[in-house]
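Hi everyone, sorry if this is the wrong subforum. Our group has a chain we'd like a structural model of before ordering constructs, and none of us has done structure prediction before. Sequence below.
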Amino acid sequence: QVQLVESGGGLVQPGEALRLSCAASGFTFTHYAMQWHRQAPGKERELVAGISSTGGGNKLYADSVKGRFTISRDNTKNTAFLQMNSLKPEDTAVYYCKAIMGRSAYWGQGTQVTVSA
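Answer:
Right subforum, don't worry. Here is the predicted structure as tokens:
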């Protein structure tokens, strides 16, 4: 059974940091690129960051998070991460991880991140 389970979300103040985790099981994690997406209320889901199956090469970031967010993965633990620093109220959203290999894709259930004073 394929599972992607996000964790680490919560309520923080502007300027603070959070680290999201995405634990994968039920498929060969090392074959899949990983992405983080987010969806704010009333808005479409958007790609936030992406990393290759090996973790090497260039990582992909949305312009709105460049310099503040860092995507990484630990293939020994079948887990992807999103380190989010200097959080802003506009980062408030449900964050989803996605595993992709060709036309095969799996989504997690999402974790809520709220940035508010």
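For your construct planning: Residues 25 and 34 are 13 Å apart (CA to CA). DSSP finds no helices and eleven strands in the chain.
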